[in-house]
Amino acid sequence: MLEKTQGIVFNYLNYRESSVISRIYTEDFGLQSFLMNGVRKSSRSAGPRTALFQPLTIVNLVIYYRPGADLHRISEVRCLQPYTSIPYDFRKSGIALFLAEVLSKSVREETPNPDLFRFLLESLYQFDVMPDHYGNFHLQFLLGLSRFLGFMPSSAGDLYSQLFDTAGWRQIIDPAEETALNALLQSRSYETHIPVSNTIRRSLLEHVMKFYDLHVANFGEIRSLTVLQETMR
């Protein structure tokens, strides 16, 4: 059945000579795998269309959707609204690559979740237009995402007590990190500037990643984490 929907690309892999298979989180069908033929062929008027399948690209899709199938076919794909800064800012690109990998390992719903889709869409567009003070964006995004995944901590103490001994985590965690995490959890806007040192930010990310690993089955290693850490120095 031919359907129209919007989607957020998580990743893609090359298939045969000119096709790709892409994992896309869609507004109407949740996370699905799609095949598109001829994407890697250059036309006379344009080059290969693989740019449409770069991680976190937001697309309009016309698809042949078969309920229960493992793979669906894309008839048409267009970029919904091109980013103005993410592809051209190496720091933002590093953050986007990291978040796309986390999403691909944690979001697995094959049914629609309009609230989650709206959260992702609005977060990405807001990230794209942020001129500065986005050093905490990935942390706020991950904490916000955990709410939709069902394990958002109620406080810094809640998170740390799950990672460490309930009574002993205060002997391990820097009080400045606890304060920063509570501020991030309480923040309702990415635009809220929360001063966090690079050292505390790296430690926060390490603990948030361990928290995800604790709650997401087969979460595994995030390979792009090293790239993110390099770009955020």
Automatic annotation (TrEMBL):
The keyword Heme does not apply. Transmembrane segments: none annotated. The keyword Cell wall biogenesis/degradation does not apply. Pfam families: RecO_C, RecO_N. Keywords: DNA damage, DNA recombination, DNA repair. Residues 1-83 form the DNA replication/recombination mediator RecO N-terminal domain. GO terms for cellular component: bacterial nucleoid. GO terms for biological process: DNA recombination; double-strand break repair. It comes from the Bacteria. Involved in DNA repair and RecF pathway recombination. PANTHER family: DNA REPAIR PROTEIN RECO. Belongs to the RecO family. NCBIfam families: reco. This is DNA repair protein RecO.
